[in-house]
What we know:
AMP-dep_synth/lig_dom; 27 strands; GMP Synthetase, Chain A, domain 3; AMP-binding_CS; alpha/beta; Luciferase, domain 3; globular; ATP-dep_AMP-bd_enzyme; AMP-binding protein; single chain
Amino acid sequence: MHLTQxxxxxxxxxxxxxxxxxxxxxxxxxxxxxxxxxxxxxxxELGVGPGDRVVIVAFNSDRYFEALMTTWWLGAVATLINxxxxxxxxxxxxxxxxxxxxxxDEECLPLxxxxxxxxxxxxLGDGPAPAEMASxxxxxxxxxxxADVRAGGDTLAALIYSGGTTGRPKAVMHSHRSLTISILSxxxxxxxxxxxxxxxxxxxxxxxxxxxxxxxQTVVGGTLVFANRFDPDEVLGxxxxxxxxxxxxxxxxxxxxxxxxxxxxTDVTSVRSIxxxxxxxxxxxxxxxxxxxxxxxxVQGYGMTETAVIVSLLGADHRAGGARLxxxxxxxxHAEVLVMGDDGEEAPRGTVGEIVTRGEHVMLGYWNNxxxxxxxxxxxxxxxxxxxxxxxxxxxxxxxxxxxxxxxxGENVYSAEVEDVIAxxxxxxxCAVIGLPDTRWGxxxxxxxxxxxxxxxxxxxxxxxVKAQIAGYxxxxxxxxxxxxxxxxxxxxxxxxxxxxxx
Length: 503
């Protein structure tokens, strides 16, 4: 299967129903196919061909969807950039993948100002394009129609960024096969989308979970309703006005929705499926969410960027309640999953080990990073770095995350990256960054700092120092100044002790 196939299917089977709704724009599948075929022709004239990397840095919209389809129509590689990155991080990514073309919207223009002028840039916003950029609508109007190359199988389809053990983002390589197998399997295993229904696309599309949730709805047919960004007022309005059936969320989003002052007066009875993941779901938030959306089936997805999101799913068990609500569900239809002990063999049920998976959903590897690829894909398994156990019925329970990753508001933050930035502050001698439980964000980034002799700094200065160099969501929300860091018997920083101390 190729990733443009859902668009061709929609043209054939739902030519009159809107496929995308974005602000005041509504477009049917034939209209979108018209745009895609012509934009593909225009990009081909700009030198984009099969295998070339096409960077998209934008907020959610119908044009983001069309940009993805255009890239795959050409057999090129969609490279999805986190719009919360700094301009330096974006430039590093664009250079690192050797991008042929960049598509950017109005709000993300500051992120691409210093890029190589030889890379073609297409403006996704409304109105005239800035100097040195091509207009999206003008390219569609002038572009020749080209045929879909229908790339599929193990052809590289997307580069989606995931943090690494060094703290630097890595470009995860996914094929048409790995993405489509996850889409098809998840729709068959759990009620994660409504055939012919309407899906609210509110989580940012540079996250693979939001991307696959959107594509899953396209596969089964229906309408995609785009929220430019997550704003509770806008989201609640769209749910009511568009009779939204399904949406992909993170716990903090659900909490902000049901706590919003407008929620009691909003009709949410149309919502029949809510898929969540990316961060731990506290029991209290889940209980409130299920009460707030009484008609919704809740589906939890566990996985990572490297596994095309889905490794396991917890679906119908939600309404049944009980201890299994603490689990990450059972292996999805396409995935082999086991808990591996230190000896490389499957651990006995109930025994903690590393969660590993294999199957066609697993990434091809990391772009231009054979060492990290070999470390992750060893012995025929993708090693998640997550620790957990499996019960006698195959339910997976996560107990810890290796690599000290912090998930705050659905964003992955790697402590090593933040520590490197804090350590560069002239007043800092040593530091450690950990994740602490947070009722709103799931986890918050917390820094423990040892100042150099004579050094003076405040928590706000540390936060500002970090925000000036990397994305703002990576900055510590809280900072504690201490005389010395806790260490293990071998002299290593004892983050486990610190988490217990500050929790």
